[in-house]
Structures are given as C-alpha cells and as structure tokens.
Write a structure and sequence with these properties.
- By secondary structure, the chain is of the alpha+beta class.
- It contains five helices and ten strands.
- It has two domains: 63 residues, lambda repressor-like DNA-binding domains (434 Repressor (Amino-terminal Domain), Orthogonal Bundle); 97 residues, Jelly Rolls.
- Helices cover 24% and strands 30% of the residues.
- The strands form two sheets. A six-stranded antiparallel β-sheet has the order 1-2-3-10-5-8, with no helix packed on it. A four-stranded antiparallel β-sheet has the order 4-9-6-7, with no helix packed on it.
- A hairpin with a 2-residue loop joins β6 and β7.
- α2 crosses α3.
- The two termini are 26 Å apart.
Length: 190
C-alpha cells in the first residue's frame, strides 16, 4: 500500500521546508510549475511517477520516500538489545539489523546457526542483478554459490552475485553467527 495524496503532499512540503527551499526553487530544479507543486503539497492533486521522480531528485530524496506507507528516516539505527528474530530453517534464525530507509536496496541481517544444525538456508538464483556479502562473526559455516562451496570461519567474508544460487549451512559441530548484507530480503524457507 502506498501513501494517500494528503500524506504525500505533507511529506513534500515538510521536506521542501526542511531544505529551506521555496516553491520557485523546486520548480527550477524539477521542471514542475510552482502552481502544480503547491497543489501537490496541499493534497489536491497527485503527481505522475515521472513528476514525483523529478520532484524527489530536486529535494534530494529517493522516490520511494514519498510512496512507502511508513515514513522511514534517512538513517536506520539498530541497538543490540531485544533483537528478536525469525526462523529461516530448523536451527537457523535471523534478525534484521535495521528497519530500512527510503528507497533502500540493501538489507542487513544477523543469522544464527544453532550448534549441530544440519539444515541450510537457500536462495535460488535470481534473474535480476544484486549480491550478498557474508561475514562470519563466530563459528564456521559452509557457503555454496552455484557449484562452488567454501568454508568460512570467524573473520572471513565473501561476496556473491544473486544470479547464482546461494546455500548457507553450519559445519555440524559449533554454533555460528553470520552478518548477511543483501540486495534481496531473507525469507522463511518452506
């Protein structure tokens, strides 16, 4: 769900004022008339996606900032307390390290593999560009990308394209903790 026209206008106006810009200055940068911008700010009209993209560029924000249902900050802070989490596979869980920022294409997770976990988390190959970085905080894991498998130990890191399949599993004995930064979200395995 995207925001309604009133909320969109409120965000445009608030950001314009925060940047200390007049309607005429935004008009010069975006190519949209000051009259149209005023109508958008008052929630009386909704800009096209093209116009909203030009407006976002003029105001120094990603277009998604104006469309996401929750107004996300430019900086997302994650504190170590109360991490919660969600299961990925038996013996493997993850917690998001931030709530996201407008237009973000990168998400970061802390993945925990329990001692003796024999299951694996898998990402199928994707048709679109993107990648993941794995950094092992503690323990050891096996990461298979395409047909190649690599054992990573604490302090090791690797980056791999999402155009290849990924498989993350424990080594069987010890628990492990891995930071995963990715252009694709983690999802619970069926």
């Amino acid at each position: 769900m995207i925001v309604d026209v009133t909320e969109l206008g409120r965000r445009v106006r608030a950001l314009r004022l925060q940047r200390g810009m007049t309607l005429k200055q935004v008009e010069a940068l975006s190519g949209l008339s000051a009259t149209h911008l005023s109508e958008v700010e008052r929630g009386r009209t909704s800009p096209t996606i093209g116009a909203l993209t030009r407006l976002a560029c003029a105001l120094g924000r990603e277009t998604a900032y104006f469309l996401e249902p929750e107004e996300l900050p430019e900086v997302a802070l994650h504190r170590a307390t109360g991490e919660g989490g969600f299961p990925l596979a038996p013996g493997i869980s993850a917690s998001a390290l931030g709530n996201g920022i407008p237009g973000a294409t990168l998400t970061c997770y802390r993945v925990r593999l329990d001692r003796g976990a024999t299951s694996a988390f898998e990402w199928p190959a994707a048709d679109t560009a993107g990648d993941a970085i794995y950094f092992v905080e503690t323990g050891a894991v096996q990461v298979q990308v395409g047909d190649s498998a690599v054992r990573l130990e604490a302090g090791d890191a690797m980056q791999a394209s999402h155009q290849l399949s990924h498989r993350l599993s424990g080594t069987g004995g010890e628990a492990a903790r891995v930071l995963v930064s990715s252009t694709r979200p983690l999802e619970v395995q069926p």
